[in-house]
Design brief:
Layout: E1 15-20, E2 26-30, E3 35-38, E4 43-46, E5 57-62, E6 68-72, E7 75-79, E8 84-86, E9 98-103, E10 109-113, E11 116-120, E12 127-129
Antiparallel strand pairs: 1-2, 2-3, 3-4, 5-6, 6-7, 7-8, 9-10, 10-11, 11-12
Length: 136
Amino acid sequence: MRSYRPADGLPQAQVTAIAQDPSGFLWVGTQAGGVARYDGRRWETFDAESGLSGSSVYGLAVDSKGLVYAASNGGAARYTGHAWELLPLPKDPGHALVTAIALGAKDEVYLGTYAGLVVLEAAGGSTETLVSDASL
């Protein structure tokens, strides 16, 4: 058994999400330290200062092309291999807090927000808000 902590390079001890990409990299979301990528030797950290949508990460997902998606307190983003790209969201402030993320069979992105469920088409085309009333 192996345990990773901040002393080992993990940005924070409170882990909130985990995913593995096709290359074998381990991606770890943390409560306040952003996302860390582990290559088997060292951790590389991504947070709001390095382009991630927010530093409190609530979910991670990997699509069929190996791109990593993160849901956070500042929205949602996709790692393109060299930088984080923010995903479009409706202007309602409740959509800024993305608490869950899932990918569909055709790489559509499902985002759970405080204002409802948002669906983004894989091609990055349309944004559809399925539920927009936060009181539901």
